[in-house]
Amino acid sequence: MITLNNVDKINEEMEYHYKKNLSLKDRLKRNKDSYSNFNKPKQPFKERVKKQWDRNAIVYIFLVPTLIHFLIFQVFPFAFSFVLTFMDWKVIGDPEFVGFKHWIAFINDKLAWRAIWNTILFSIYYIVPTMALGLILALIINSGVKAAGLFKGIFFLPVVTSFVIIAGIWGWLFRGTESGMVNYLLSFLGIDTQLFLADSGQALMVLAGLSIFKVAGSTMIYYFAGLQSVDRQLYEAARIDGATPLRIFWTITFPLLKPIHFYVAIITTIGSFQIFDSTFLLTGGGPNYSTTTIVFYLYQQGFAGLNLSYGAVLSYVLFFIILVISLIQRKYLGQETNYY
Amino acid sequence: MKKTITYTALFLLAFCFLLPFIIMALGSFKEMKYALLDPLFWIPEDPTFSNYIYLFNDGIFLRWIFNSLVITIIPVFSQMFFCAVLGYIFAKKKFLGREVIFWVFMGVIMIPQQLLIIPKYIMFADFGWINTYWALIVPELWGIMGVFLVRQFLQNIPNDLEEAARIDGANDITVFFKVILPLSIPVVATVGTFSFISNWNDLFQPLIYMTKEEMFPVTVGLASLLGKEGDFGIEMAGSTLSFVPTFIIFLFFQRYFTEGIQMSGLK
């Protein structure tokens, strides 16, 4: 079988180099010639179909439905959403073309900009701690501790748990009364009872804390994979030179993880711009709009307020923000380091 | 010395990560009055099953669990199958437009799902799919990420086995079921575990497509419980019950989660 495979490969390669040096006209001529040269009788239609079928049946059977599904559930909604931003689309009655009305409304909508600012603020609270915690967890797991797999599982558990469950517990922990657990613990440090989710200055931070807890485990996995690919000899050389562990970390490990820092930063940023669940579950956007994020505002406008067209505008704003982040990723990372 | 610090940090962190789950489990055996008074989560003084009994007697909760199972299990198996076939097609088959189609698929990953939700809502309202399982099942029958994972996996597998089967006279369908599918069990399991978790835990989509209480999946149901002030014990019992399937999947397929996350950049 191996020889057969090789013959195939060699043929393919020869064909490639051959074709490269021929013009299209020559190639067409040669194709024609090759038929007559071999004096091969043209196969009957039925047989050709059968051969094609044996070779590629699976492509024809599965690709067509997939493409239709893809057009209906991905491509069409994407385009339709854009059209929607220029329409007044009531659920009942005919749609009406209104031009840039909703886009202009967006530009003048202070609350929308507040939502964008809140989301940026959320990213600030969320990205660096998530990365730091993920890196710390990965470093500990990677340092040769016993039962590393078990601990990896424990740190990963929140990633697979639904936001609803974690938010339920989080809301209880951060109750803004003396009987809340975090307040109770803080009282030992002599800190007054905090309002947490009811305080417009703190609510967003508490929600960021929830997300950090939820996502750090997946960040850990990326860093763990990165740490395992660092050349051990570098550490040994540094140790022989008498470097302290801290120095080894800052001069070797940390810089070598650069592609992973960048990658994790990008996906965490994208994730943070899509945050919805915790706001919806715990604060409802309040107090005083301090936790109204883009997606939550989209939900409020689009579904609670049934202003579907304006919701579509907001969703496109979200899309453009994420597009910019993705383009930065593409520019600095390139295709091949995109996926691990 | 260094070891002591490492292990102390490890156990402290592990405790912090497990604490919410311990609180959930213990809280589910607490009566409401204790749950609200006791700032710590210590073992309830008189543990009670009343919260669980309440949920089981209240038929709607079981209905939520059933809804979640329906909208999770069908997409899981469908995704495993279709992603395996499509991954195979994109990894091994030669046909016109293969690369273009694949990169269009991959480009669509960048579109946040929140963008599609409003047009999809209008579409589904037209189809009459609001408050039906169709709205949550049909769009999830296959996934681009799953196709990508299987393709990555199969590209690293030599063609020899497939060629051998072909020489023995196998056609496409036979090759797929007898050669490719058995080979790709690990990656197909990865696709399945991710599909399970994302469908079981999804809140945003069912929140919009399901407006009748009896059609809620357990996430939306729990969210509605959460809104009712003071039902902490019941809420935690509900959380615990809805956590059980996730936890079972997690115990059995943990390896696939971590591999999948490394391979794909999924979150």
What are the segments of chain B in which pLDDT stays under 50 over at least 5 consecutive residues?
Answer: none
Total count of domains of chain B: 1
What is the gyration radius of chain B calculated from CA atoms? 23 Å
Q: For the residues shown, what is the average pLDDT of chain B?
A: 87
Shape of chain A: flat
Strand order of the largest sheet of chain A: 1-2
Mean pLDDT of chain A: 83
The run of helices and strands of chain B is HHHHHHHHHHHHHH
> What structural class results from the helix and strand content of chain A?
mainly alpha
Please name the CATH topology of chain B: MetI-like fold
Helix-strand makeup class of chain B: mainly alpha
**CATH architecture descriptor text of chain B:** Orthogonal Bundle
The portion of residues assigned to helices of chain A is: over 70%
Transmembrane segments (chain B): 64-88, 100-122, 134-154, 175-197, 232-253
Family (chain B): Belongs to the binding-protein-dependent transport system permease family.
InterPro entries (chain B): MetI-like, MetI-like_sf
Keywords (chain B): Cell membrane, Membrane, Transmembrane, Transmembrane helix, Transport
